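We modelled the chain as a single entity of 308 amino acids. Its sequence is:
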Amino acid sequence: MKPVKKFYAKIDSYNQTTYETNTLSVLLSDETRLTLRIDEREDVKEEEVYYFETKPVEFKGREQHLVEHYRHISDCDIDLDEKIRVMREFYRFAPVDVTRSKKTVEHYLSAIENPIVKTITDDLYNTYKEAFYLYPAATRFHHAYIGGVAHHTATMLTLSDGLVKTYAFLDHDLLIAGIVLHDLFKTVELSNYYAPEYTKEGRLLGHIVMGSEAIGETARKHGFYEEEERLLLQHMLLSHHYYGNFGSPKKPNIPEALALHFIDNIDSKFAVLGEALEEIEEGEFTSPLGVLDRERYYKAKKTKHEKK
């Protein structure tokens, strides 16, 4: 009796047949391709990763694999680090390891001293923690890869240090909280982290409004709704895109909100520019970049000096 084969794979194509089983063409992490047969009543999707248990069968003189058990990667009972390890085999990920982003984010969260700001921020962060480290920051444009929200957030937190050091009137607690929360509801705005589309809530409300509402609900739950910190955090989320046509109903009217907007703008644009520069040789110009007014950027030829 041939043993059951156990593996993770991404579905390349799903073909319906006239038989009781349909065929799947799947790609394994080592780029091996297999043909699986699965009950026609099962609902699986192309371009998504599943855990399979199969047994070899012969069909029309060819060896295939009959699916005896399967589970979507999102439903597998494995920890976040293992899930990310598997997903990296099949999808484009953030250039920085998720563990490093997590260490940065949680370092800054631990530094928040204001008890109201800390309670609200920690509650929301812990509620959406796993999705936060998997979701992209967008379907295209900046940080549009798995782990994009966390990578973007960690970079912004690091950038905040320079502003706070230079401008002593900035409240670092508020700024840290605003940075962590500003894109947290991308995890609700987008349908999933591996092939995202905008959800109904994402299209009709968007992450800015949903995030602001969640801050209000969380503050009320903890008895902080009448405190000014709740209002300040909501304002920061509502104004971080600055312009109404970019989704912000308000412009920044507190220093930390203005700082959040500029830090967000810097990282979103420099991330795109950095990716574009990696794709070209020295002495060439990038293609026109939409997030930078369709300007083309030159990658300079630097004179190489030998170290003495």
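As a brief sanity check on the tokenised model: The CA atoms of residues 21 and 39 lie 4 Å apart. Residues 80-276 form one domain.
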